């Protein structure tokens, strides 16, 4: 890890406009291919089950245990990233995507598949690590445009989700007939490896470097120097506390709990209308399968517009409030779609409006999450909250399955779990601390002052 220094004062990295833009492009591409791998697994699981002769119950069990494994790996990544740094954490996420894709192509039984797809939890955490790193470098970059519009710029990165979904659907249709599901996963490996190599050129975030430098001085017994450096950079020298314990420390606990509950409940809606969207449309709204695919493609295009809109809006108003209003509006739209909308036009309209607000708000959400935690536990906090989405999907799936087994119509189940879950997530996010958008943190002002000094 490199540091800039002078004879008089230690200095962390300077983030030039070129550094910020390079990191932004890589983050977008890495998230796109992480989503591609993540969605490809769901697309190919029925094909794999047919090849191996797995019963539907086996496929369901695999998917459930993969979600649990993803949750565990995602939490572990956050703990690691707050110790080894953002740059290495981001190399782990894209490296995990490459490894998961390669290993999935070699699948030979269900237990093996559960193990290797759990590794994909690294790729799923790409968005959380991206948010952590970009939140920090955007705060101290010399690029004035990015600094003024940091939420908007980040929203383009987060827009890798719908693009990754569409890329997965398109390439699966192209490659599956010719090279099969194994070849499709192998194809996903090569871009991820290239991005891993390119990420070696990125700079570590100055905020992490400051924390690392202070920790090193404390370990060496240089307490006075550590305190002087901490005072210079407007941070505190505290007794060591595990990052996971730190996000639940007094004064932080309430924010973490409400943020976690909101994220958990919102995945009820993602499961219902994104992951199970085709099933809902064909079985519940009697849309043909081909039309259902067209609707999902259009909805993902609309969702990209939602990302950009909410990112832009979050630069001007409290991100907490933007997220809350968006999720409540999204939930109401889903409620209308499930209970009232009839005909393809109305179903498309309200499905698209719902995804525009629900999925689109994630650009503001991830940046808000990174703003909600201190540097020493920011990666742990964002990945912990992000990982709860997988648990939300599992719990939501259990509730939907139970309702369907009891004879409930799928549209009613979608309303109860998906629509109401999305509205509830919007209400819970209001329990978090209200933020003021794009206010540079005191420690980041101090970093800028030190870097600008002669």
TrEMBL record:
Keywords: Membrane, Transmembrane, Transmembrane helix. InterPro entries: MFS (IPR011701), MFS_dom (IPR020846), MFS_trans_sf (IPR036259), Sugar_transporter_CS (IPR005829). It holds the Pfam family MFS_1. Its main location: membrane. This is MFS transporter. One of its GO terms (molecular function) is carboxylic acid transmembrane transporter activity. The chain crosses the membrane at residues 20-42, 62-81, 152-175, 181-198, 257-277, 289-309, 321-341, 347-370, 382-404, 410-431. It comes from the Bacteria. It is a multi-pass membrane protein. It is found in: Cell membrane. Residues 23-437 form the Major facilitator superfamily (MFS) profile domain. One of its GO terms (cellular component) is plasma membrane. PROSITE patterns: MFS, SUGAR_TRANSPORT_1.
């Amino acid at each position: 890890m490199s540091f800039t220094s002078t004879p008089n004062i230690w200095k962390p990295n300077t983030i030039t406009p070129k550094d910020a833009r390079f990191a932004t492009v890589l983050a977008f591409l890495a998230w796109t291919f992480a989503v591609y791998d993540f969605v490809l697994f769901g697309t190919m699981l029925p094909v794999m089950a047919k090849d191996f002769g797995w019963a539907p119950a086996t496929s369901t069990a695999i998917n459930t245990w993969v979600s649990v494994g993803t949750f565990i790996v995602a939490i572990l990544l956050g703990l690691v990233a707050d110790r080894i740094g953002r740059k290495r954490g981001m190399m782990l996420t894209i490296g995990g995507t490459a490894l998961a894709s390669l290993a999935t192509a070699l699948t030979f039984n269900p237990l093996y598949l559960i193990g290797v797809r759990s590794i994909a939890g690294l790729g799923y955490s790409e968005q959380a690590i991206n948010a952590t790193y970009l939140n920090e470098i955007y705060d101290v970059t010399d690029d004035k445009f990015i600094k003024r519009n940091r939420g908007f710029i980040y929203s383009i990165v987060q827009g890798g989700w719908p693009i990754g979904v569409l890329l997965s659907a398109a390439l699966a249709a192209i490659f599956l007939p010719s090279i099969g599901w194994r070849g499709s996963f192998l194809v996903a490996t090569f871009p991820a490896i290239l991005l891993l190599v390119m990420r070696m050129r990125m700079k570590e975030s100055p905020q992490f470097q400051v924390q690392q430098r202070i920790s090193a001085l404390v370990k060496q017994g240089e307490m006075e120097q550590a305190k002087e450096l901490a005072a210079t950079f407007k941070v505190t020298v505290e007794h060591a506390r595990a990052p996971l314990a730190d996000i639940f420390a007094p004064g932080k606990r309430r924010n973490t709990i409400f943020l976690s509950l909101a994220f958990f409940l919102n995945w009820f809606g993602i499961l219902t209308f994104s992951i199970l969207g085709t099933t809902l449309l064909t079985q519940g709204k009697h849309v043909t399968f081909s039309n259902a695919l067209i609707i999902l493609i259009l909805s993902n295009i609309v969702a990209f517009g939602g990302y950009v809109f909410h990112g832009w809006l979050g630069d001007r108003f409290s991100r907490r409030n933007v997220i809350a209003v968006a999720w409540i509006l999204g939930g109401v739209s889903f409620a209308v779609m499930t209970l009232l909308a009839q005909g393809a036009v109305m179903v498309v309209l309200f499905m698209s409006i719902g995804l525009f607000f629900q999925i689109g708000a994630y650009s503001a959400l991830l940046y808000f999450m990174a703003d909600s935690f201190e540097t020493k536990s920011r990666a742990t906090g964002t990945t912990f909250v992000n990982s709860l989405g997988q648990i939300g999907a599992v719990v939501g799936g259990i509730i939907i399955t139970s309702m369907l087994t009891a004879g409930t119509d799928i549209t009613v189940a979608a309303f109860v779990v998906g629509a109401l879950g999305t509205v509830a997530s919007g209400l819970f996010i209001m329990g978090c601390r209200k933020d003021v958008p794009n206010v540079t943190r005191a420690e980041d002002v101090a970093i800028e002052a030190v870097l600008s000094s002669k």
